[in-house]
Amino acid sequence: MKILGITGALPQEKVVHGEDKKKFVRLTGVHTRFISSDSETFYTLGLRAAQSLLEKLKINPEDIGFCISNSQTNDRFYPNIAFKFAENLKLHRESMAFDMHLGCSALPNVLKVASGLFANSSQQKPYGIIIIGDTLSKQSLKTDESTYPLFGDAVTAVVITKSTEHYEYGNFWIDEENPSIYVNGLGYDDNGSLNVNREVAKLNNTVMKGDKVFEFVSNEVFKFLDSKNLKNNFDLFAFHQGNKFMNDLLINKLGFNKSQSLESIHLFGNTSCASICMSIIGSQNKIQLERSNRLLLSGFGIGLNASYSLITLDKNACLQIV
Amino acid sequence: MEQFILNLQTFVFDEFEDLVLKENTKFQELDEWDSMGLMLLIGMYDQKYGKSITGELINSCGTISDLYNLIK
Q1: Helices H, strands E: what count in chain B?
Q2: Which has more confidence, A174 or A298?
């Protein structure tokens, strides 16, 4: 399996952090980010990205075997939004279309599911499309000074195809008794405990215990990635963009070369499950597109969960923002 | 201890040149202390001392002397 192209769709409103956020910017690396309006949602941004990518790659929608959409800020809980994408992208009615619901660690996990679909003999079509992203600004309280300024909204589309190049995947998770990242009103109360009375729960409040996530990344994620002996198996790597200080520490501990790191937090903020794709697009000046590139992709965060993929980015891959 | 305080000033409180830190300073009562400082401090323990110190442990400390004892 390999990646043929990635397109990111950003909302119109750009927020630039000023002098009052100097320390925050230094620590997190978030200089600018994009905030969605009411009409800019996971679905509208995702459709824009996917339509543009298919057009650029000149792919006939009939040749797409499956559409996987992944978001934690889906426009609706049900029915499945992937049907709506598939319908408007004019995919064949017998193609597969389904939603996944992972956070910052999503992309390698979604790619693994896609590789499984390609491996199935009933999957005859050459292409698959993934639509992945979040509009977390809609689920964060503006008064939360440590969480709200961190997140930027973005949705990306990825087209993949079956190939013989080496592909690898790894994953591990911890089910926390008291989650480090959760949303009040969507199953958890103020203490992070399961709340069955959704009517009285507060909505729109993403809670993130930054120090817990930091500990997880600097200890558990480091040990996980270090144990896989990945260092000499990639040309470039893209980690989830949660926090610049945290990522620099992880890169340093792993002994990876920072010049091989594809990053985007300075441009778009923490774009949750879109951040790996946004980093590939945002740092494409580091990618030699005249040849194929071996990429290490790793996502980590909410769950807690960490995952990685070793995958090929095709020669002359289409990388764009719309 | 002197070196530890110097590291605190460099890694965690570098934007506050006039801030004087002492062994008995109650760091959590400082206006300059916040959740970002906590993250920087966890990073300092990791980078400078090779120690994985949790936020919970740091929050249980009262003074800078308590923080220093975590590296022993």
Answers
A1: 4, 0
A2: A298
Q: What is the amino acid identity at position A125? A: K
Minimum distance, in Å, between the CA of residue A193 and any CA atom of chain B: 19
**Domain range for B53:** 2-12+28-69
Single-letter amino acid, residue B51: K
Q: Which residues of chain B are modeled with pLDDT < 70?
A: none
- Per the domain annotation, does B39 fall within a domain? yes
Q: Give contacts of B57 with chain A, Cβ < 8 Å.
A: none
pLDDT at A42: 94
DSSP string, A130-197: EEEEE-GGGGS-TT-TTTGGGB--EEEEEEEE--SS--EEEEEE---SS-SEEEETTTB-TTS-B-S-
- Residue corresponding to tokens 């807690």: A304
d(CA A166, CA A136): 34
Distance from C-alpha of A322 to C-alpha of A241, rounded to nearest angstrom = 20
pLDDT of residue A22: 83
The CA distance from A153 to A289, in Å, is 27
Interchain proximity B40–A249, CB inside 8 Å: no
Residue B22 falls within a domain, yes or no? no
